[in-house]
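DATA SHEET
Item: assembly model
Revision: 1
Owner: S.N.
Input lines:
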Amino acid sequence: MATEKVQVVVVGGGATGTGILRDLAMRGISALLVEQGDLAHGTSSRFHGLLHSGGRYAVKDQEAAKECLEENMILRRIASDCVEPTGGLFAALPEDDPAYAEKWVKACAESGIKTEELNIKELLKKYPVLSPRITKAYSTPDAAVDGFRLLWSNVNSARRYGAKMVTYHKLSAVYRANGAITGVELTNTLNGEITSVECQMVINAAGAWAGEVAAMAGLEIHMIKDKGTLLAFNHRLTNQVVNRLRPPGDADIFVPHGTITLLGTTSIAVEDPNSTKPSEIEVENMLNIGRETMPNIDNYRIIRAFAGVRPLYQANKGAGGRAVTRNFALIDHEQKDGLKGLVSIVGGKFTTYRLMAEKTVDLAAKKLGNNTPCRTAEEPLTQPVTSEMLERGKKVFGVPGYKKAAERLGDAYGKVVEKAEQDPSMRRMFCECELVSASEIDYVAKDGDSKTLSDIRRKTRMGMGTCQGIFCSYRTLGALGNNPQFTVGHREFITEFLQNRWRGIRPVLWGQQLRETQLSTGIFCSLFGMERMNDE
Amino acid sequence: MMNKKTDVLVIGAGLSGMMAAARAAQSGKKVTLLTKGMGTLSLTSGCIDLWGYEVDNPKQPCGSPFAQIQKVVEQNPSHPYAKVYDVLKESLTFFQGICDKDGLTYRDNGGENWLLPTAVGTLRPTYLAPTSMAVKDLNKVKQIVVAGFDELKDFYPEVLVTNLKKSKLLRPDCELTVAHLKSGWKKLYATSLAHRLEQPEGQREVIRQLKPLIKPGAIVLFPPALGERRDIDVAGLISKGLGCPVYEVTNLPPALPGQRLQDLFLKYLKNQGVTVILSSTVTGAQVAGNRCSHVTAEGAGKTFTISAQTYILATGSFVGGGFDSKPGQIEETIFGLPINTGDGKWASGEFLSLKGHPFNRFGIDVNDRLQPVDGQSKVILENVLVTGANLAGSEFSIEKCGNGVALASGFKAGKLAGEVSR
Ligand SMILES: Cc1cc2nc3c(=O)[nH]c(=O)nc-3n(C[C@H](O)[C@H](O)[C@H](O)COP(=O)(O)OP(=O)(O)OC[C@H]3O[C@@H](n4cnc5c(N)ncnc54)[C@H](O)[C@@H]3O)c2cc1C
Ligand SMILES: Cc1cc2nc3c(=O)[nH]c(=O)nc-3n(C[C@H](O)[C@H](O)[C@H](O)COP(=O)(O)OP(=O)(O)OC[C@H]3O[C@@H](n4cnc5c(N)ncnc54)[C@H](O)[C@@H]3O)c2cc1C
């Protein structure tokens, strides 16, 4: 049993945890982040990807709105390659209360959110998918954010400052002596191996699982776990985020991401933070509401449905769902429960992760006697890829693959390009939807954090596109021929790959989607007989 | 609007439609085959599956598929095989006859199924295979050389070898060898490789690179791209050059064996005087009482009607384009025939499992004359016959019976259409 020693163990590889890791590292505090799955295993990859302007909260909660706006502006600056500054619009339909619109304009102004009334005729010309029934529309500074990338950028930056991060390690016990934390036990979720880490402090950033983590220290945190479902359309329906101008409700936001659009979401209380199964009823209800804003929504193909669980903090039991504050809570368990060295950060939003991290690390640093100020709002997360490197990438990967790869790889782009320059066979594209090259797969396979074939899939985004993953799943196996750790378990990989996709496809199984699914059964079962294949 | 007249109108150029057209033409009928696209044959292995596994032990590959099909017919009268069991053997003979005449022989394995290797290293049970795929006595082979091309995207010899190695069918001392051939081309696709291998230089190059690897008792497995043309026996020529048997394995589309079969049939039909209308879609039907009087079709920018004595609906389920769906609703696109959706559940929770998926079983209920019937077994349209993947009640992907059902039902529909008097 290996024993490691750090000052702080951070639990949870979501936006909050990775933000905290970076902040700790930048202040010179030694830290290890542990995540039970792959990075972004939790809610931070199962969300809408909206970098809120604050508009959605302006009427009800100006404090939250201001926080969103401020963080939105900071992230545009420090993480420009993770944010697409699409801008947003809020549109009202005849059935929406006009008094709300008035209140909203006023509240936005008070919160500092710039809005501008739009000419409806021009708007409809620009976006014919929008309902001609729209009565009023305003622009806002909303944006789209790539959660997965932002998390990796945080981790990469933290590592440059000496921090450590392990995936597939679950916090399984907390050691305490004399009313203080002394260390933690970790279980490797791939092979069951147990290790322990000595530390002075544990920061619980486990999102919807925060209650479970607190329970390991014998304490209680009451979380409301609120499932939300999203639909991915195979189309960029508008270039801006579209919100409904009425009190926040289900299925009233469309967010464009690259070539797709996400419509969401719902709000259903669940017991288990792992409940991420979208239901057919949710899909139906969302389409009914979405149709009000975009009447011809049924003409666009839905490529998948997926769900995440909001970690809502309930200080006083009772109120549920959307009414609970989106503001976060920082819990000092030394004060609250008399346990020294445990801090929990719960609730909040993706948009405000950095601020949550700053407040958490302010408290942690004070306890550790460190008074270095926070610098995460000033220092960029990544160095943008140089135009010289982009040109070289274009030569080996062609247009438009070179750009997508640069967006995914960030700092690592140079290495991937170099490899392809040296070895022409590394230039082949293995996933045609997402334009992933052999070189990129090879790089990711060797990066040390990729433990399973599915990790490679997530990092490269292979099979996340509009095809059924038929070709790219098989090609991934082929491409890894010279990475021996991945040459076993082909059945398991393909089964898991397809099952993951299937979870998203099944609730939207009609039209083109059903046709292609029948084709997939033909390929994987008729041609390859994978339903009966053995791995042993 | 132009109106065409014919005795038998076959809608769809998949295996079932082409079999129907071939059999109806043999009865001396005037046959028209109209199709939107080329059907699923070119997506398949090119082999004819009849039934793959034991009914009572679905993990165990069966020997004779006929024994299993007999059980299916007894236990499950709504399975498509129950409607066409009477013509099953006759239809296979008819099919083999057509292929033989063209020189593309389809072999059976002495009444038993073949177990043929795939690109992922599994062994798939099938009943009829073209000579280029029919690997004989795999259990006696001493060396299997898997030949891949570095420039070819969708064939990975290592994947095949990794998994085939685990097969208990192979001799324990069977040696598996990966051969990375170089074509010297920048990129290779199945068809460009096939064209290259039709050329003597292409064959020589492959033989030169492979020869040093071949040991006594070896066979060589290739991706399914050994030529597109049927008049050049690429597998045979390479085999001669190497002095050992050479085969194509099953792989993802595009694969040439199914394509060859499709080409063969279209040529045969034209030779038999069948009028083949490509790239045209039947968009609707005129029905009077329980008969169809004509259908409307669109193609090459024109709309026209066709009237016939018999209409054969060979439009191929969802993949073929015969069925369409919306949330909670499935329709047959030409006649609006009812689709049997069982207990209303569309799909299984597990994507890959022995249960398969209900949507693959969805289809049109028919009587044993292949006429569509309603829930009370009443014939809906007496001069419309339904074939292939459109038939309700079979899970082609799990049962391994897709082309078998298509072949037998197409044959029967063609035969019945041939018996209708003018
Ligand atoms: C449907 C939906 C849409 C949303 N849309 C938006 C939006 O558009 N904009 C926005 O700003 N916010 C949005 N949110 C909210 C936002 O996604 C979340 O607030 C945020 O992602 C939470 O991040 P986190 O790091 O706190 O939690 P998570 O991302 O869930 O991270 C917690 C991590 O802890 C890990 N973990 C748990 N227990 C253990 C353990 N014992 N050991 C090791 N690791 C453990 C988990 O695996 C998980 O990865 C949305 C939420 C939902 C559900
Ligand atoms: C990927 C895959 C692999 C398979 N592999 C095998 C295998 O290896 N062995 C095996 O035995 N089975 C296999 N099967 C199953 C088998 O291919 C099918 O069950 C069988 O071929 C169906 O034939 P069909 O003639 O009924 O339909 P299809 O081949 O689908 O033909 C339908 C035809 O109808 C046409 N059409 C549709 N609508 C219209 C319209 N409105 N107007 C005009 N034309 C129209 C289409 O263009 C097409 O030509 C596989 C299936 C798939 C999907």
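QC remark: The pocket of flavin-adenine dinucleotide (ligand 1) is lined by residues A 11-17, 34-37, 41-44, 47-50, 52, 170-171, 205-209, 213, 228, 230, 264-265, 308-311, 348-351 (CB under 6 Å).
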